[in-house]
């Protein structure tokens, strides 16, 4: 009996020693350092949109695909970032810096930041530049804080081209939501189902600093704005709802606005948006974007709905349909900007800026497009070609298209996105 016990002890001890020897030879992989989680990526996007009868060379109702029958280098974009660890339970720190060169930058500038430094079609823009913090406060999920310059919460579409299903943008994206903000945004993870967003910023597409009748300021007025809302994560992530608002004065602090009887520092503009995304099956995704905006200064309202249906036919081919109705009750929001600096000049309140309104119009638009991912070398993984056909029309008899002579327009376009990764 004693001999057996000794044999067992020796056997266990031998096994433990052998296990230690194996672990010594094959140590557990070290956890990645903070620097190891920093990535440097980017892409180049180019495309064109054909229109048989454009409005003076412009596809009316479009912004980022506005130049008819011309090849656009929309984006050459670089992103350097360290995202927050989504599983972090303690303090965590990250950042994001995203810069862009291309024709899209004409419409995405922060005022006072590279916005009038280049008069050509292709311009530079800082899309995002912010620090990120995760704070284990208030709830079990904690609070995320974003400080600096960042894109808006609102809308189903984004500036970053690879995250959109189609080449051309909706009326909601072009005219119904902000693009970017400068300020502080907090996200409180109340539960796995509910997130609450709350922040303060300088306004729509603005930075800091304003003087009366100054057309180069970083802000176009001297007031702050609120941005926030709620996010719901339902059906184990298959259904998400993001309901957000941006409220603050947005009219420029210039003589023409004051003479119109508007106080640019107190007349509020409300931009409200609800985006619902339902991944109905592994192949079918339905997205609904609801939008309503109001400007108290000029008593102008607008809004509508866009519905997206995306179906993955196979691993390399997706088809997306988008139908939209958007009403500009006063002809205040929807416009074309023929010059390369006209959009930012209008935001500044500069009288040299030109905006061509479509009048009080209810716009309808139908777009069908493909996302084709052909077989490519590993270095080009993510390359996509996106052809589309689009029909825009006035639903109330106005003629905003064809230089004010047509009720509708057909456009045929498409783009290619070539990604790259540095680390």
- Number of H- or I-type helical stretches: 5
Strand order of the largest sheet: 1-2-3-4-5-6-7-8-9-10-11-12-13-16-17-18
How many β strands by DSSP? 18
Runs with pLDDT <50, length 5+? 1-24
**Helix/strand order:** HEEEHEEHEEEEHEEEEEHEEEE
The portion of residues assigned to helices is 10-25%
Distance N to C terminus: 63 Å
Strand content: 35-45%
Average the pLDDT over all residues and give the rounded result.
93
For the report, how would you describe the main beta sheet?
A: 16 strands, antiparallel, barrel
Gyration radius from CA atoms, angstroms: 26 Å
| Shape assignment | globular
**Helix and strand composition category:** mainly beta
InterPro entries: BBP2 (IPR011486)
Keywords: Signal
Organism: Bradyrhizobium campsiandrae
Protein name: Porin
Considering the chains and any ligands shown, give keywords for the structure.
single chain; 423 residues; mainly beta; 16-stranded antiparallel beta barrel; 5 helices; 11% helix; 44% strand; globular; disordered N terminus
In short:
The protein has 423 residues and is mainly β. It has five helices and 18 strands.
Describe this structure in words.
- Pfam families: BBP2 (PF07642).
- Keywords: Signal.
- This is Porin.
- The protein is 11% helix and 44% strand.
- It has five helices and 18 strands.
- The strands form two sheets. It has a 16-stranded antiparallel beta barrel with strand order 1-2-3-4-5-6-7-8-9-10-11-12-13-16-17-18. Strands 14-15 form a two-stranded antiparallel ribbon.
- The longest helix has 24 residues, at 2-25.
- It is globular.
- It starts with a helix and ends with a strand.
């Amino acid at each position: 009996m004693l001999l057996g016990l000794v044999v067992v002890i020796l056997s266990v001890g031998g096994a433990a020693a052998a296990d230690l020897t194996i672990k010594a030879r094959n140590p557990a992989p070290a956890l990645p350092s903070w620097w190891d989680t920093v990535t440097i990526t980017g892409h180049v996007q180019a495309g064109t949109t054909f229109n048989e009868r454009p409005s003076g060379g412009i596809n009316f109702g479009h912004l980022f695909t506005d130049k008819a029958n011309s090849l656009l280098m929309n984006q050459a974009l670089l992103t350097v970032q360290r995202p927050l660890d989504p599983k972090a339970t303690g303090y965590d720190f990250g950042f994001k810096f995203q810069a862009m060169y291309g024709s899209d930058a004409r419409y995405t500038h922060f005022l006072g930041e590279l916005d009038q430094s280049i008069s050509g079609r292709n311009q530079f823009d800082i899309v995002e530049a912010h620090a990120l913090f995760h704070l284990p406060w208030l709830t079990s999920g904690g609070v995320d804080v974003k400080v600096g310059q960042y894109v808006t919460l609102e809308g189903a579409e984004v500036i970053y081209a690879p995250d959109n299903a189609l080449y051309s943008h909706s009326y909601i994206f072009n005219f119904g939501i902000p693009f970017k903000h400068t300020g502080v945004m907090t996200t409180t993870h109340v539960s796995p189902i509910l997130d609450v967003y709350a922040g303060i910023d300088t306004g729509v597409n603005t930075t800091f600093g304003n003087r009366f009748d100054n057309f180069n300021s970083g802000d176009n007025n001297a007031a702050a704005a609120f941005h926030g809302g709620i996010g719901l994560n339902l059906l184990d992530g298959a259904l998400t709802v993001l309901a957000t608002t941006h409220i603050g004065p947005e009219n420029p602090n210039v003589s023409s606005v004051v003479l119109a009887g508007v106080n640019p520092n107190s007349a509020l503009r409300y931009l409200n948006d609800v985006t619902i995304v339902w991944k109905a099956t592994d192949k079918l995704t339905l997205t609904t974007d609801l939008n309503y905006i109001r400007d108290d200064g000029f008593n102008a309202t607008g809004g509508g709905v866009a519905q997206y249906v995306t179906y993955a036919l196979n691993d390399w081919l997706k088809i997306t349909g988008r139908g939209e109705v958007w009403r500009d009750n006063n002809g205040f929001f929807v416009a074309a900007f023929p010059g390369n600096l006209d959009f930012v000049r209008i935001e500044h309140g500069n009288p040299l800026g030109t905006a061509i309104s479509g009048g009080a119009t209810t716009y309808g638009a139908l777009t069908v497009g493909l996302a084709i991912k052909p077989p490519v070398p590993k270095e080009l993984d993510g390359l996509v070609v996106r052809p589309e056909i689009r029909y825009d029309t006035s639903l109330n008899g106005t003629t905003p298209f064809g230089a004010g002579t047509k009720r509708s327009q057909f456009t045929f376009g498409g783009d290619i996105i070539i990604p790259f990764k540095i680390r």
